[in-house]
Every structure is written in structure tokens, then in C-alpha cells.
Specification:
Length: about 550
């Protein structure tokens, strides 16, 4: 007998001694737990930090709300919370239990005639068991699962390929009536359960024929949950039409094969395209069958059984949301930071992801990375740099589409003010390939209303001597005596002659750059501007 089996048997004997069946969620240690979440990983199809077989999972619960990787076989008993929890159905024969799945296990027979139509029946998967005191409710995304009571626990090999999400909640038996109300609206497909009990469902009927329901729950341990569910007649997406408006926050949603696109109404609903755990393990939504959501700013995280797809408008289904700051943060952290690296002279080992690679592309070099709260932007002049980390293709494709659109749109430049997290003022100047002029003279100097000293690589434009002059810097010298001339200087910077602005960018004062996009970022800072003015040793004067 495995250690896990020994532990679980011990739990049964202990509760038996108290003459209480006490249906609960069970942890990997075999102990009762108020609630838990599992994120089963997909079978690895590429080199990864972990060579996963699809049997492993990440786990968190009421006692430790941090994702922990469990190198455990979900098909086997040992340290498997899903196995331990369902054994209460297989071993105890509860009076009130049910198993439902729109894709039931092979060989099972639907127990309710009104829900046998898989095309319009509820898109719901789960199981529950209650005695007179308490019970558990499993909400999951796994097809053909769980096995009916007569077959005992089985997790099919076909379900190892994709990622899946599982939620278990320990509830007081009084909530069984609320669950029945949800089932009355959603119409799940029951394939196993206590027949006398299921035949009575729903004992409390919805006389108003509602198409949606929102129910608040509290676990046995006092944790706040909220269930959102809809009927087949609801005719809309659950997340943007019910969950987001009720929670009054934007939602980040991961579901299987979403085809609605991100919803950008009052409360936005974003489709998650990639999941990445803190240890570096990641996978794309194309192999993720889980259905979860998290608020962008508030403390709600949800696991459910319905997708963001048009076909689901006419299917019942729902999601159960947990109000927990730590868990919400854990889910938000699964969404990788947005980052990109760009360079008109990229590292030789890298592969261009741009859709516009000819010489009229932007003469720009830099990198950025952002999470949901903050980020950084590096603007630099270094060719063949930085080395690639890994390609964030969905984000970069989005930027490329926007760049392509902009280059065929207005020819004018853009001026944008920025303020850092600590309150420092910056101003960015940028132009498209269609601008057809120098960036510094007609844009930066005129906007800042001051003369400019400009250092760029091999300028072939003479010093501009109009109303606001633009001087080419010929030599740079620091206070310690170190100096060099512009022939060995690949940097691109500028400083106002009298005002408090200093700039670093990525485009040169060169005729060839008239047809290149590029820009410069200026800081409004008296001391920094003074430091740049002090290093101007020689400049090209006006005639």
C-alpha cells in the first residue's frame, strides 16, 4: 500500500471513530482542508524547465495560498487531493451525491432525460457529496471524469495532454439547496449519483424562469465565495455580461479556444494567451483546457466550467469566484509580463519578428518589460543588443500591426508626456518613416522653444541656424579630462542651451534618417541638463 493510501485510510478510521462521515475536501497530506485549487499541467511538447508528462499539477489551498509544483501522478492515489476527495464517494456511499459532465465517461448513462442533449445542455463538469452536516463541491474542467461510483477512481490518459483546473470547496449542508437552484437554471448532465436524491432535483424550482443566478457561499472555514451561473437562454458570454459587471472590475480570463476576442466595454474582459508560473514553467492557451478568471484590481479569482465562445451562449454553465487577495495575486502572476526587445541592427543569433524589415523601418533600439503594475523602458544606441530572452510573439505581433497601421496613416509626429512612478517628468518625441524631416530641428527644438546641442552618429546635416538653432556636437569632454570626438561616438543625445531639458534617443541627424521612424526621450531636470551642457567641448557654429 502506498504512503498516500495509508494516510487516507487513517483519516477514514479517525473520523469513523467520531461517528461522523464529515465530507470534506482533502489535501495532498490526507487531511481535511477548507478548500483547494489544482492546475494540472499539459504534457510537454517542447524543451521546458520541467519535462512534464501531463500527470503533474500545481496546488494551493486554504493553508498555503501559493502555487506549489507537485511532482505527483494525478492518475495514482499517492499525495493526490483529487483522489482522496473523491474516495469519500467511492468508499462511503453518501446519500446525497452527484457527478455531472457534458462529456461523461464512456459507458455512463445520463440520469436526467432533460439534459441528454450535449449541444444545448449545460457545459458543466463536477461532483458533490453531502451528509447532514457538511459536504464538498468539486468544480473542474476535465472531460470524461470522474468515473462513476461503481468503477472507483480513474483519470484517463487522454486527459493528460491539456492543462486543467480544479476547485474543491468544503460547505455546510445548508448550501445544498443553493446548489440545487444553480442546477435548476444551468441543467447539468448527471451521469451518476444517488438516484432518489437526483430525481427530486430541483426541490426548489425557479418560478420566474431566470436566465442567470448569483449566489454567495461561505465555506465551512468562513471563506467567501460567489457563484455566477447562466442558463442556455441567457444568450451571452458569462464573463463580460455577468461576472465583470457584478464584480465591477476588468477580468483576465483563460478558457478553451476563446473566439469572442477581448471585450473593451466599461469593464473589460481580456483573453489570456499564455500562462507562466514563477519557476519559469509556461504554456500557451492552445493547450490549456482550464477555465479561470481573475479581476485586474480587486481580490477575486474564479474557476469554472464554461468557455468564452459563441457556441457557449446557448449553453448553461458557471464559475465559482473566491474573494482572497493572495489567491487573486497568484492568478495575476500567472499572466506573463509584457516585454519586447527591438533593434534596427538586431543580435545576429536572433530572428526578426517584425513585419516591416526594409530600411524604411524604425531606426530604434531598446527594450521594455511591464507587469500589471509597473515596468521599465530602456532607450539606447547600442547595435546587436540586447541578447534575446525568449519571444513574446502575441504582444509583438500586436505592436507590429499597430506600427503598420500608423505608417500608412497620418504623417505627423507624436509628442507624449510621461511621469515616472516617483514623479519625474519626461517628454517623448517620435516620428514615422513618412515624416520626411529631421527629428531635432522641426520637432524637438521648436516644441521646447530653445536651441539644441545634438550629438548623433555621423551627422551629415549642417548646424541648423533658424529661429531655434540645432548645433552638431563635435567633441565631448568630461571633467576628469577624458574626451573623444563625434567620429567615435555612436550615442544620440541632445540638451537645450538655456532650458532644463536633456534627451537620449535612437535616431541620427542624417538625411538617410528622414525616411526612418525613430525618437528621443527628454528629461526635465536642471542638474541633468547642466551635466550634458558641461560635456560639450566643441560644436559646429552657425556661419
Amino acid at each position: 500500500m502506498s504512503p498516500g493510501m495509508i494516510t487516507f485510510t487513517g483519516v477514514l478510521l479517525a473520523v469513523g471513530a467520531e461517528f461522523c462521515y464529515c465530507f470534506n475536501c482533502i489535501s495532498p497530506l490526507g487531511d481535511s482542508v477548507d478548500w483547494f485549487m489544482m492546475y494540472k499541467v499539459p504534457k510537454a511538447t517542447r524543451p521546458m524547465p520541467k519535462k512534464t508528462t501531463g500527470k503533474e499539477f500545481y496546488y494551493l489551498d486554504a493553508n498555503n495560498a501559493t502555487w506549489s509544483f507537485m511532482d505527483v501522478n494525478i492518475k495514482e492515489p499517492d499525495q493526490n487531493p483529487l483522489y482522496y476527495t473523491l474516495q469519500q464517494i467511492y468508499q462511503k456511499n453518501p446519500e446525497k451525491y452527484g457527478m455531472y459532465n457534458d462529456q461523461p465517461p464512456q459507458g455512463s448513462v445520463p440520469l436526467t432525460s432533460s439534459t441528454t442533449n450535449q449541444a444545448t445542455g449545460a457545459h458543466m463538469k463536477g461532483a458533490f457529496a453531502f451528509d447532514k452536516d457538511s459536504g464538498f463541491w468539486l468544480i473542474l474542467s476535465v472531460p470524461f471524469f470522474p468515473a462513476p461510483q461503481k468503477y472507483n477512481y480513474k483519470y484517463g490518459s487522454s486527459q493528460l495532454i491539456k492543462a486543467q483546473a480544479i476547485l474543491c470547496i468544503t460547505l455546510d449542508s445548508k448550501y445544498l439547496e443553493e446548489i440545487e437552484k444553480i442546477f435548476d437554471i444551468t441543467k447539468p448532465m448527471f451521469f451518476d449519483g444517488n438516484k432518489p436524491f437526483l430525481q427530486e432535483l430541483p426541490r426548489v424550482k425557479d418560478t420566474k424562469k431566470s436566465t442567470k443566478i448569483v449566489v454567495d457561499f461561505k465555506s465551512k472555514g468562513g471563506q467567501e465565495f460567489r457563484e455566477y451561473a447562466k442558463s442556455a437562454s441567457f444568450g451571452a458570454d458569462l464573463y463580460d455580461s455577468l461576472v465583470a459587471p457584478d464584480l465591477k472590475d476588468n477580468l483576465l480570463v483563460e478558457t478553451w479556444s476563446p473566439n469572442l476576442g477581448s471585450n473593451c466595454s466599461t469593464y473589460k474582459v481580456y483573453d489570456v494567451k499564455k500562462v507562466e508560473f514563477k519557476d519559469g514553467y509556461w504554456f500557451k492557451s492552445t493547450i490549456d483546457h482550464a477555465k479561470w478568471a481573475v479581476t485586474e484590481n480587486r481580490d477575486w479569482a474564479c474557476i469554472g466550467d464554461i468557455n468564452r465562445a459563441k457556441s457557449q451562449f446557448r449553453r448553461g454553465g458557471g464559475t465559482m469566484c473566491l474573494r482572497h487577495a493572495g489567491v487573486a495575486k497568484q492568478f495575476r502572476n500567472l499572466i506573463p509580463e509584457e516585454y519586447g526587445m527591438y533593434n534596427d541592427q538586431p543580435p545576429k543569433s536572433s530572428v526578426s519578428m517584425d513585419i516591416k524589415q526594409e530600411t524604411s523601418g524604425g531606426h530604434m533600439k531598446g527594450a521594455f518589460a511591464f507587469d500589471k503594475d509597473s515596468g521599465f523602458w530602456l532607450i539606447l544606441s547600442v547595435p546587436n543588443f540586447p541578447a534575446p530572452r525568449k519571444q513574446n510573439k502575441p504582444l509583438l505581433k500586436k505592436f507590429n500591426r499597430e506600427m503598420n497601421y500608423y505608417s500608412s496613416g497620418p504623417n505627423g509626429p507624436i509628442v507624449t508626456d510621461f511621469i515616472t512612478r516617483k514623479g519625474q517628468s519626461f517628454r517623448g518625441y517620435a516620428k514615422s518613416a513618412s515624416f520626411g524631416q529631421d527629428l531635432y530641428h522641426p520637432l524637438v527644438a521648436v516644441n521646447l522653444k530653445d536651441n539644441l546641442y545634438v550629438e548623433t552618429w555621423r551627422p551629415d546635416l549642417k548646424t541648423e541656424c533658424s529661429m531655434y538653432k540645432v548645433y552638431d556636437v563635435k567633441k565631448v569632454a568630461f571633467e576628469d579630462g577624458y574626451w573623444f570626438n563625434s567620429k567615435t561616438d555612436h550615442s544620440k543625445w541632445a540638451v537645450t542651451e538655456n532650458r532644463d531639458w536633456a534627451c537620449i534617443g535612437d535616431i541620427n541627424r542624417n538625411i538617410s534618417q528622414f525616411k526612418r521612424g525613430g525618437g528621443t526621450m527628454c528629461i526635465h531636470h536642471a542638474v541633468v541638463a547642466k551635466q550634458f551642457r558641461k560635456i560639450v567641448k566643441e560644436k559646429e557654429e552657425c556661419p
